Every structure is written in C-alpha cells, then in structure tokens.
C-alpha cells in the first residue's frame, strides 16, 4: 500500500502564458510561490504550494498546442479538483477576479461543487463536502 508524504502529490501542467497562469493560481486561488527550475528543453518549471500538494507549471520556450476542451471527449485526466471549505466565498472571489465560471455552484446531497476555467481554459472543479 502506498503511503503518501505530506505535500506528496504534485500536479503538473504545461502552459503557454506563464504570467497569466501564475496570476490565477497565486492571486485568484492563493497558492504560494515555491521554487523554480530551468527545463532541459528551454523554459522554466514553476512550483506553487498549497495545503496538501504542489502544482508544477511547465513554461517551455515553445509550448505545444492545447488539447481538446471537452472534458469527456477522450480518455485521460480532464478535470483538476480541489476540495475547499469556502465555496460561496471562493465563487464570489473568482467572479471579482474575472475568472470564467462555466458551472455555477451546484448543491447535491453530499457536496456543493462548481467548475471554473483557468487562463489556459483547463477545467478546475471546486468541491465542498457537507
């Protein structure tokens, strides 16, 4: 059985616009700057920390084209989900920040959830357990 270390989950993504990505993940979501490393192929890796994990953002000198935007259009990871404790406050904050909320808060028997897009149009789900 796997035993995950604290902050032992790292999520990685590739972006075209590192400034917009850092603005969103740091200023809209409150992630903390960690460290940076050069990429062997040219460009930088930026590490941001949040309770429970690390987001690694690859900013290559020449970013590849984006993939399909339909989260169920093909197999593989499609939605990044964060479990939060303040979904109403977060929704209002993201709207003021100018983030595009594609699914407003949904209230189900066990969870409230919503989906927003980051600057690269990745689906970011926020869920609050009841």
Question: What is the secondary structure topology, with strand pairs?
Answer:
Elements: E1 10-14, H1 18-28, E2 32-38, E3 43-50, E4 53-60, E5 79-83, H2 87-97, E6 100-107, E7 111-117, E8 123-129
Parallel strand pairs: 1-4, 5-8
Antiparallel strand pairs: 2-3, 3-4, 6-7, 7-8
Describe this structure in words.
- It is a single chain.
- This protein has 130 residues and is an alpha/beta fold.
- The protein has two domains: 10-60, 2,3-Dihydroxybiphenyl 1,2-Dioxygenase, domain 1, CATH 3.10.180; 79-129, Signal recognition particle alu RNA binding heterodimer, srp9/1.
- The chain is built from two helices and eight strands.
- It has helices at residues 18-28, 87-97, and strands at 10-14, 32-38, 43-50, 53-60, 79-83, 100-107, 111-117, 123-129.
- The strands form two sheets. Strands 1-4-3-2 form a four-stranded mixed beta sheet, covered by helices on one side. Strands 5-8-7-6 form a four-stranded mixed beta sheet, with helices on one face.
- A hairpin with a 5-residue loop joins β7 and β8.
């Amino acid at each position: 059985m796997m035993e995950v270390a604290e902050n032992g989950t790292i999520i990685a993504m590739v972006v075209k616009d590192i400034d917009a990505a850092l603005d969103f993940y740091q200023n809209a979501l409150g992630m903390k700057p960690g460290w940076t490393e050069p990429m062997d192929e040219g460009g930088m890796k930026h590490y941001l920390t949040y309770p429970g994990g690390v987001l690694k953002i690859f900013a290559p000198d020449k970013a590849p084209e984006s993939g399909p935007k339909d989260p169920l259009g093909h197999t593989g990871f499609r939605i990044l989900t964060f479990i939060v404790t303040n979904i109403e406050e977060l929704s209002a904050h993201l709207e003021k920040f100018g983030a595009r909320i594609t699914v407003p808060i949904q209230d189900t028997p066990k969870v409230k959830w919503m989906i927003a897009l980051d600057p690269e149009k990745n689906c970011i789900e926020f869920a609050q357990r009841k």
